[in-house]
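queue> holo job accepted (magnesium ion)
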Amino acid sequence: MADDRIAAVTALEVLDSRGNPTVEVEVRLEDGSTGRAIVPSGASTGAHEAHEMRDGDAKRFGGKGVLDAMTNVETEVADAVVGQLAHDQQGLDRLLVSLDGTANKSRLGANALLGVSLAVAHASAASKGVPLYVSLGGTDAHLLPLPLFNVLNGGKHAEDSTDFQEFMLAPVGAPTFREAVRYGVEVYQALKKLLGERGFSTNIGDEGGFAPSLANNVAAVELLVEAITAAGYRPGEDVALALDPATTELYEDGHYTLKSEGRLLSSAEMVDLWADWCARYPIVSIEDGLAEDDWEGWQLLTSRLGRTIQLVGDDLLVTNSERLDRAISLNASNAILVKVNQIGTLTEAIAATQTALSTPGWAAVMSHRSGETEDTTIADLAVALGTGQIKTGATARGERTAKYNRLLRIEAQLGARASYAGGSMLSQRR
Ligand code: 2PG
Ligand code: MG
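queue> job finished
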């Protein structure tokens, strides 16, 4: 395989779905194969995430330009990786990590490193002549994920909507991935109709979900349950609910602020709120139900609800194996959200995913960012790693549907070998 050595690495400043610049990397191998990847970007970013390098030059893109990260790709990183074997992803990523030399990839930028890491994975797949999910997961990879459709957007992803960020549909009872998508679409359209009939806005937020100004947060959950029924499905059995309240964004000075309701809650009161919601509504998963450093709160939450509810750490775990190990040993959360740009290399993201999936009672959810592009790498990754779950927004907006469409193509390609996880990969059912 000597001919799959990296020959050239180039970068380009392109746009994400919020109209901000981001890094695209293209890699060419000696054998002529090419691979390309675009790096996503978050809005509700955790403090412990790897560093996203922005130029800070107010005269360009309000300081959000990525020319420095691009330059790092094309100079220092390119110099180091040209000549490396593309199929040795672990060796390549080890090199990227040591080249940067910092704990959070702040010297070269996690966006620069991740672009190279993912583009090399694509180039290697092209060189082998197989799809990315086969290149990374082998010919046995066949599990299509439960899609978590974010149909109602609040928090940092939509002005004047709910305090909590994401209200998602989980089509746990669908027989196939394709049917799960149909369930999701039908409930999304039923929700739009309901909102219209009640005089609420049907404008959408960053991830393609609706963003109405509701009276309070629980109204969003009630609307979703109504929409599931209106679309002809059984709440909980066909389509359940998953939440990402992203409470790190609500946490300050030891309490959680629900601005739209004029309420301040302690950590224990937040746990009570989730226990109450889970008792009343068909909720199967809650992500970031508490803030990123509220470890004691997470332990309380996990001991109260962890046996019946999937408790996903996003800002808490930031796709970081060290934080994951700590969470596993403290029994704080029981699932990891996997966002490749939180950690900065493919190998590290895969390692964290595999640790979670191999720990009894734990699960992993592949995830997009709120700032996305047409890049569909995470769809292939979900199948390659057999995460059994993915969240990549609503069933609307091109950068979100690109991932679902990619999964539909993979499902079709796998044919009779394709299987669908339904709710079976939720942490409480494993
Ligand atoms: C999250 C994500 C993705 P962001 O909190 O899980 O939905 O949002 O990319 O803004 O961090
Ligand atoms: Mg989150």
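queue> Residues 42-45, 166, 207, 244, 246, 314, 367-370 surround 2-phosphoglyceric acid (ligand 1) (CB under 6 Å).
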